[in-house]
């Protein structure tokens, strides 16, 4: 075990030394700096070279665990290569910490948690942004209808929303307005936003705009009726969410209890867990427990998730 750890440390040191001294097939840093700018440090050069290597691998393989649209939806202002590089460096650091604490197995278990946690954070932030867009849609629709009644055109009404609304509605409507200015059809831009935000309600609004454009009529009245439907649907969804609150709270307690008890027992008596990490049977049981825990997590999540 010690030999394996020493080998890993030696490999990491060799990789860092190579990244520091290896020539990069790119424009020198001095030529890319503005006059009077401070040159980058060696650590920044290492990170930059890693980002270039990661970007090349992602483009070569055609696979990315963190797609750009997911990062954009999560509100993370980073390039794909930069984010993946940060996750890889954090994973390696977590492995070294786990190895120092309990050996290779503990290091691998802690290292695996880093990309899983990163993916969970991105998904959580994306869902929060989509939910915020859905919650703001009712007031957004009222602003659009009011602007149309005041004599504004649809693009002008959307521009008003992009200027006055809260995030993320302001960013999404600004994107619709900008795409319309670049020549994309406004309805298609709205439909793309509905798909990206996974908003069925905004899809209804887009369909109403498309039908009104083809058949004519008062768009503000149509949007008012759609707004009433959305309000009733949101009221029903809130009622269902209130009824299912107890089940969702129970699921969180059930999932947190094994972890809390395990951490407390390890803190009180670390020797109790020695057979689990040092024997083959203990490691097998630990792996089975982790698999069952993950299965239970998704099972409970499906049970308490109620869609309206």
TrEMBL record:
High-level lineage: Bacteria, Bacillati, Actinomycetota, Actinomycetes, Propionibacteriales
Broad class of the protein's primary localization: membrane
Keyword Ion transport: no
Cross-referenced Gene3D superfamilies: Type II secretion system (T2SS), domain F (1.20.81.30)
Entry keyword set: Cell membrane, Membrane, Transmembrane, Transmembrane helix
Membrane-spanning parts: 92-117, 253-270, 276-300
Domain Type II secretion system protein GspF: start-end pairs: 141-265
Domain of life of the native organism: Bacteria
One GO CC annotation: plasma membrane
Name of this chain's protein: Type II secretion system protein F
Organism the protein comes from: Aeromicrobium endophyticum
Coiled-coil intervals, chain numbering: none
Localisation per UniProt entry: Cell membrane
Membrane topology: Multi-pass membrane protein
Keyword Methyltransferase: no
């Amino acid at each position: 075990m010690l030999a394996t750890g020493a080998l890993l440390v030696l490999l990491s040191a060799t990789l860092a030394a190579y990244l520091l001294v290896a020539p990069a097939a790119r424009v020198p840093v001095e030529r890319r700096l503005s006059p009077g700018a401070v040159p980058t440090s060696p650590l920044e050069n290492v990170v930059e070279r890693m980002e270039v290597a990661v970007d090349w691998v992602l483009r070569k393989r055609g696979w990315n665990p963190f797609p750009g649209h997911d990062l954009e939806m999560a509100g993370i202002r980073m390039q794909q290569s930069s984010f993946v590089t940060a996750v890889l460096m954090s994973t390696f650091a977590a492995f070294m910490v786990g190895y120092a604490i309990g050996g290779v197995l503990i290091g691998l278990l802690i290292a695996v948690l880093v990309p899983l946690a990163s993916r969970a954070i991105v998904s959580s932030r994306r869902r929060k942004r989509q939910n915020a867009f859905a919650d703001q849609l009712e007031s957004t629709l009222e602003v659009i209808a009011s602007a149309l009644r005041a004599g504004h055109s649809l693009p002008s009404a959307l521009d008003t929303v992009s200027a006055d609304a809260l995030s993320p509605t302001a960013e999404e409507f600004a994107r619709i307005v900008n795409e319309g200015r670049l020549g994309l059809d406004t309805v298609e831009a709205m439909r793309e936003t509905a798909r990206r935000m996974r908003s069925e309600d905004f899809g209804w609004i887009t369909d109403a705009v498309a039908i009104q454009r083809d058949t004519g009529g008062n768009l503000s009245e149509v949007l008012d009726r759609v707004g009433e439907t959305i309000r009733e649907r949101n009221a029903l969804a809130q009622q269902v969410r209130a009824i299912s609150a107890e089940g969702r709270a129970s699921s969180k307690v059930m999932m947190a209890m094994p972890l809390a008890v395990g951490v407390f027992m390890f803190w009180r008596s670390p020797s109790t867990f020695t057979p689990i990490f040092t024997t083959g049977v203990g490691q097998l049981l630990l792996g089975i427990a982790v698999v069952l825990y993950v299965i239970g997590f998704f099972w409970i999540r499906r049970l308490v998730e109620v869609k309206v």
